[in-house]
């Protein structure tokens, strides 16, 4: 009884009726967020490179590339939609690990469902289960895989494999094989993800390789079934901990409810709660940013991010907590516009970045999940007054609940970047709100075409 087989038994025995309505609702929110983030990332240079490669190698027209409208093989379409979403740094994050599981399960589920003619209910079911397996595995890997230098793509690939496998209706043996094939497929260096376009490249591979793992298993391909837990296997190589917990307490809660966070501002999710704390302190103190003496970040997990100031591109800004905090104090918010050159070169924000410092003795974290705990921001004025706020989890996170009003605001702000018509934006969002009622994935993808081909 290998770990992969145990997990496969749990997945294949879980029907859509076994899932709570809130889990299915969060899957819809994840889908809306991913589509909106894809709109923002569609024309980013790294996305264009991968799109050109896949179109050049185009094969069977089974699944739609969102906003382009061209149809490609399932794995290729999933890859392109995932890279577009991840490139914008505006998708979702898991509160434990910052892995972008929602992007991967959304892109792969829609692509395979479009080919197979599966319903909205089928897609949501697949997404919840894909998220669950990915989340459970990555919880074991946190923080081991990052300490060993691996990016979150090494866990999101399981979300792709399981979600795709659910839509392919894999049996237990096949689902177990999909997981172990996925395990031996994926890599991704964390150091490259923090400083370059490698982050979205990892997402593209996670979607593509996870999809291919499920399709290989469907056709009878076999890998080593104990390769998750075996010595020198996946979990040991990635620094896995509490491995016995991966298959424990199935169905008592669902990770897509408890641990998924939808980004309601762009950039690295570890900074969102801290940016919210900075903005709240500035609002409550009616802070004049020109009269700020220092801004102190107190968060144990943030000390390694202190050197990244004065970013001039999306990659730099997305990974700079100093920029997040300075912009939040200056503008009393951090929003989609803060990933633009105009904000990155704003003189007031630039000056404030030089005033941001880090508490040398922050409160220790209560557990190993560094991205779950937010932090405190203190604004000291030249007058000596201090304005302070603590935010443990940003809006849009499972622990605080996720509101459709926030998802709708994000969708309506980002979707016009794709040049989709106002009517298609309105209709596609309405469809996602009632996604469990649609008969085929094509009802959504037909609306995600800027031009009808």
What CATH architecture label of the largest domain applies? Orthogonal Bundle
**Count of the separate structural domains:** 2
Question: What can be said about the biggest beta sheet?
Answer: 4 strands, mixed
Mean pLDDT across all amino acids: 96
Provide structural commentary.
By secondary structure, this protein is of the alpha+beta class. The protein has two domains: 3-264 and 401-445, 2-methylcitrate dehydratase PrpD (Orthogonal Bundle), CATH 1.10.4100; 269-391, 2-Layer Sandwich (60s Ribosomal Protein L30, Chain: A), CATH 3.30.1330. The strands form three sheets. A four-stranded mixed beta sheet has the order 6-5-7-8. The protein is built from 21 helices and eight strands.
Features:
alpha+beta, 4-stranded mixed beta sheet, 2-methylcitrate dehydratase PrpD, 453 residues, 60s Ribosomal Protein L30, Chain: A, 8 strands, two-stranded antiparallel ribbon, globular
What's the structural blueprint in terms of helices and strands?
Layout: H1 3-13, H2 21-41, H3 45-56, E1 63-64, E2 71-72, H4 74-87, E3 92-94, H5 101-116, H6 120-141, H7 144-147, H8 153-167, H9 172-183, H10 190-193, H11 198-218, H12 234-237, H13 255-258, E4 260-262, H14 272-284, E5 292-298, H15 314-318, H16 321-331, H17 341-344, H18 347-353, E6 356-358, E7 375-381, E8 386-391, H19 404-414, H20 422-433, H21 442-445
Parallel strand pairs: 5-6
Antiparallel strand pairs: 1-2, 3-4, 5-7, 7-8
């Amino acid at each position: 009884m290998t770990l992969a087989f145990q997990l496969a038994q749990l997945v294949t025995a879980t029907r859509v009726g076994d899932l709570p309505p809130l889990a299915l609702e969060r899957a819809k929110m994840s889908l809306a967020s991913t589509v909106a983030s894809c709109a923002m990332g569609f024309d980013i240079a790294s996305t264009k490179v991968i799109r050109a490669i896949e179109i050049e190698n185009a094969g069977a027209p089974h699944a739609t590339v969102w906003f382009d409208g061209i149809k490609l093989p399932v794995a290729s379409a999933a890859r392109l939609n995932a890279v577009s979403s991840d490139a914008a740094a505006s998708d979702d994050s898991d509160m434990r690990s910052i892995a972008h599981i929602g992007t991967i399960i959304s892109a792969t589920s829609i692509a395979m469902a479009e080919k197979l003619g599966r319903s909205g209910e089928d897609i949501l079911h697949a997404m919840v289960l894909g998220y669950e397996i990915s989340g459970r595995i990555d919880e074991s890997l946190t923080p081991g895989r990052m300490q060993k230098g691996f990016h979150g793509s090494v866990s999101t690939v399981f979300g792709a494999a399981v979600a795709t496998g659910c839509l392919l209706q894999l049996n237990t043996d096949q689902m177990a094989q999909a997981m172990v094939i996925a395990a031996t497929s994926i890599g991704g260096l964390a150091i490259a993800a923090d400083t370059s376009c490698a982050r979205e490249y990892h997402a593209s591979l996670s979607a593509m390789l996870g999809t291919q793992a499920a399709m290989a298993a469907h056709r009878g391909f076999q890998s080593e079934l104990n390769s998750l837990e075996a010595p020198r296997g996946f979990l040991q190589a990635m620094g896995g901990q509490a491995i016995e917990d991966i298959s424990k307490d199935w169905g008592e809660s669902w990770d897509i409810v408890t641990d998924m966070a939808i980004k309601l501002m762009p950039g690295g999710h570890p900074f969102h709660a801290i940016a919210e704390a900075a903005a709240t302190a500035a609002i409550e103190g009616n802070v004049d940013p020109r009269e700020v003496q220092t801004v102190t970040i107190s968060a144990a997990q943030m000390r390694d991010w202190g050197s990244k100031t004065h970013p001039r591109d999306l990659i730099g800004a997305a990974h700079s907590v100093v920029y997040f905090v300075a912009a939040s104090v200056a503008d009393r918010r951090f929003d989609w516009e803060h990933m633009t050159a105009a904000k990155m070169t704003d003189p007031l924000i630039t000056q404030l970045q030089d005033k941001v410092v880090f508490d040398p003795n922050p409160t220790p974290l209560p557990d190993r999940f560094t991205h779950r705990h937010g932090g405190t921001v203190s604004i000291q004025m030249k007058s000596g007054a201090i304005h302070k706020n603590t935010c443990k989890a940003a809006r849009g996170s499972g622990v605080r609940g996720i509101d459709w009003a926030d998802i709708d605001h994000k969708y309506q702000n980002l979707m016009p970047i794709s040049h989709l018509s106002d009517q298609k934006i309105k209709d596609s969002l309405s469809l996602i709100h009632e996604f469990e009622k649609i008969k085929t994935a094509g009802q959504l993808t037909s609306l995600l075409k800027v031009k009808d081909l």
